[in-house]
Amino acid sequence: DMAEPIQQLTRNNSPQERQTIPFTLIQRKEKLGDLLYEKRQYGKAKWACIKMREKQYEQSICLGFMKLMRYICEQNSSGLYLGITIPIVTIVHTNESQSEMTQSVTVAYYLPDVLQDQPPHPLDSDIIIEEWPSTIVYSR
Fold it and tell me: Which family does it belong to (predicted)?
């Protein structure tokens, strides 16, 4: 089922064609030369998102990623390969008191800069385009 998207990705994606999501570095914490974390600010942007709820967390991530790959590799209103941005983001959801993780996971793909104004529509109705506000992220 994923043979065509993987072939498309392999044909069209060399490392120099991967767009890193733009951010402003706020803080960098190292210990003995090793990076512990970075505090980053990401600007307001549009993302293609899919929310999954499988029995296992890993299965939700995998299935969500595969659906996003189909969107990236031609299953969109433009019919074109959209290009890869890194990283693909996974959001683990918690209950209302934020004391436990739920089975719900969101997998999200930052739309490349050239597509931010008019992103192609996903052919898969489970994928939605959302505009996320500017946010602070801790990254390892």
Answer: Belongs to the HEBP family.
